[in-house]
Sequence to fold (67 residues):
Amino acid sequence: MSETETYYELGTAADRWDRAQMFFEAKEYLTAARILGGLVEEVPEQVAPRLLLARSYYHSARLGKAE
Fold:
């Protein structure tokens, strides 16, 4: 595990997707966005992570990134 990588960024793409959804539902939008950012880079063909990432940015008042 690198210095900037945390436990919730580990696991398969499916594990990280589940974890990001849990953080989003818990209103931990910045943490969800951090997980989803890497996930979107890994699987750019998947639309759901990209949409949840935009919603996470919106709810965390990072409106520029939400666009």
